[in-house]
Amino acid sequence: MPVVGILAALSLSACSTIGYYGHLARGEYSMLAAREPIARVIADPATDATLKARLELAQQARAFASDRLGLPRNASYTNYADLKRPYATWNVFAAPEFSVQGVEHCYLLVGCLAYRGYFDRERADAEAARLHATGLDTWVGGSAAYSTLGWFADPVLNTMLRWDDDELAATIFHELAHQRLFVKGDTEFNESFATFVQYEGLREWRAARGLPLEDDAGRKRQDEFERLVLDTRERLRLLYATALPPEEMRARKREEIERLRAEYSRLRETLWQGKGGYEEWINSDINNAKLLPFGLYRRWVPAFSAVFAHQGGQWTAFYAAVAKIARLDAAARVRELSGLQDVKPD
How far apart are CA 16 and CA 18, in angstroms? Predict the structure, then answer.
């Protein structure tokens, strides 16, 4: 999920405060000011060998993105910035106590998003507390990647280097895909498109490097976990549509959350044979806001996969076909993607 750059953020509705604008301006400036050309970092004898190796790999992935995947050839991800913190930003999600519809914040350049980003954890926590005091469910999630959608030369961040080699390369592909094509106000389209480019790009990247195909066991677990959460969100949506008294509604809401935890435990111990990976998420507080990000990234991935197959796996033709879908109005875009969703590759 790209974090909106300062040019977009300054176009928020008038209800947003000058203080928030100032925070974004300072945060973005500090990030951009911390950039240093990766070539210079690699050439510096004082650079740690592990850091040097990771940045060399990032540059190889960056070149591959443009040379082989048809992604923008610009200065993004040719610089490195050490932010000296664990995440680039923290995103605040909020939803009513009895709704799975997120509170949106609208931006001129990118449309409406179901979160608000902060460069500082304390500010994000304070905003979440303020919203919670009004009766909303809230959740704060850290984001290791960052994108200005091409407005500035986005750097490789120290926060991105915590991942393994595949995830680092895939993230570069994902963020550059947003620069290639972005539809204002359609998060599911944008994230699904970038996620498809990430998946297919990683497959081609591994093949080009003589590596075996990626083991899809982890991705399968991710799919199954996401489905578990989405099923819970759908049950809550149906629950909230009833006319139950608030106290009974709260009790039923707690029951659904405990059902989610129990089903996760069964899934982990049966199909996953004891392998988890989501314990921290599942064992901490769960509310409507925490459920919001699920489904945004991969809803239309099968549809984009079908488009790619129809275009013979040619990236230029694929991007042209996707651009045609992007130009449709929102309702027509959903119909087109829905029609592609279950189409089997030729």
Answer: 7
pLDDT tens, residue by residue, 279-297:
999 999 999 999 998 877 8
Mean of per-residue pLDDT scores for the chain? 90
pLDDT at 2: 46
Q: 30 is written with which tokens?
A: 């500090």
As to burial, measured by CB atoms within 10 angstroms (0-12 exposed, 13-18 middle, 19+ buried), residue 340 is middle
Task: Output the CA–CA distances (angstroms, integers) from residue 135 to 101, 237, 257, 321, in the order listed.
Answer: 14, 18, 19, 44
Strand, helix or coil for residue 157: strand
Provide the CA 325 distance to its chain's centre, in angstroms. Answer: 21
Q: For 227-255, what is each residue's pLDDT tens digit?
A: 999 999 999 999 999 989 999 999 999 99
Average pLDDT estimate for 5-30? 62
331 versus 3: the higher-pLDDT residue is 331
Enumerate the H helices of the chain as residue ranges.
Answer: 6-9, 18-33, 38-43, 49-67, 121-133, 165-180, 187-208, 217-240, 246-269, 279-283, 288-291, 301-310, 315-326, 330-341
Of 95, 151, 99, the closest CA to residue 128 belongs to 95
What is the per-residue burial (b if ≥16 Cβ within 10 Å, else e) of 176-199? Answer: bbbbbbbbeebbbbbbbbbbbbbb
CB neighbourhood size of 4 (10 A): 27
Overall size of the chain counted in residues:
346
Compute the distance between CA of residue 155 and CA of residue 68 in angstroms, rounded to an integer: 21
pLDDT at 195 over 60: yes
At 208 the three-state DSSP class reads helix
Give the whole-angstrom CA distance, residue 139 versus residue 128.
7
Instruction: Compute how many other C-beta atoms are within 10 angstroms of the C-beta atom of residue 208.
Output: 12
DSSP one-letter string for 35-103: -EEHHHHHH-TTS-HHHHHHHHHHHHHHHHHHHTT----SSTTSEEE--SSS-SEEEEEEE-TT--SPP
What residues does each domain of the chain span? 6-194, 217-291, 301-341
